[in-house]
């Protein structure tokens, strides 16, 4: 999935807490993580995605991920649900 198509996806979920919930329910297709996000914030998301063999796409910055999600603030993580 291309980053510029992210905001158009109706199954897009944004934010660490919401991403974690999707991963916990085993409903994730692909996870996006900002490289400049605090590691202690995204560590669990990365671990859950790795354990479930969900693809992880690393984005250069929180600002870029937020923009791709069509929000006015940065985003540490986002996920596409099944």
Automatic annotation (TrEMBL):
Gene3D superfamilies: 3.30.1330.30. It comes from the Bacteria. Pfam families: Ribosomal_L7Ae (PF01248). Residues 4-79 form the Ribosomal protein eL8/eL30/eS12/Gadd45 domain. The keyword Zinc does not apply. Keywords: Ribonucleoprotein, Ribosomal protein. InterPro entries: Ribosomal_eL30-like_sf, Ribosomal_eL8/eL30/eS12/Gad45. GO terms for cellular component: ribosome. This is Large subunit ribosomal protein L7A.
